Amino acid sequence: MYPIQHRKYRDGIDNLLVLLIGGIPIAMPTVLSVTMAIGSHRLSPQGAITKRMTAIEEMTGMDVLCSDKTGTLTLNKLSVDKNLIEVFAKNVEKDYVILLAARASRTENQDAIDAAIVGMLADPKEARAGVREIHFFPFNPVDKRTALTYIDSDGNWHRSSKGAPEQVKYLF
User: For an engineered disulfide with 116, which of 35, 78, 91, 99 has Cβ 3.0 to 4.6 Å away?
Assistant: First the structure.
């Protein structure tokens, strides 16, 4: 077409590059969705059922997966056994550790881990009772923890954090 119109091929190449570079961001979500679907399909012969496409991406970043067959697979509900909680700090009760973990959880979302921790409280509203939330740091795969900065009823500032032990231990 360019020789017929006596136009330079360079103009055509420039236009082609503009279309290619502009089209890549538009096509990226589709390409990622198809890639995740292919990964899900390849995992299905091994008995893996993926409810969320992002679960495949999250699992690729895991080193160790701990699963409780008796609770997770049969009841489809996570739970925390209070008897298995160990507190290494002196003069700190298990109930207080549970309260701090519940404060570092989102009470309104449907995350299974947060629901299990908040479910240990007598009333889920206890997690935010008497405190004013300043900043909630949501979980992300890089930091592997959540945190809540809050002010208690006496006006003292606190930060409660929960997450992967290898990340949380460096906070002290």
Answer: 78
pLDDT at position 157 is 95
Dist CA 51 CA 40 (whole Å): 9
| Whole-number pLDDT of residue 135 | 92
Q: What is the distance between the alpha carbons of residues 105 and 127, in angstroms, rounded to a whole number?
A: 8
The pair of structure tokens assigned to 68 is: 């409780």
* H or E element that contains 17: helix 9-43
Each residue's pLDDT tens digit, 117-144: 888 888 888 888 889 999 998 888 888 8
Q: CA 123, CA 95: separation in Å to the nearest integer? A: 13
Question: What residues are annotated to the active site?
Answer: 68
Q: Rounded distance, CA 40 to CA 116, Å?
A: 27
User: Helix (H, G, I), strand (E, B), or coil: what is residue 5?
Assistant: coil
State how far the Cα of 121 lies from the Cα of 130, in Å rounded to an integer. Answer: 15
How much is the pTM?
A: 0.56
Nearest to 112 by CA among 41, 37, 55, 33: 55
CATH architecture of 69-171: 3-Layer(aba) Sandwich (3.40)
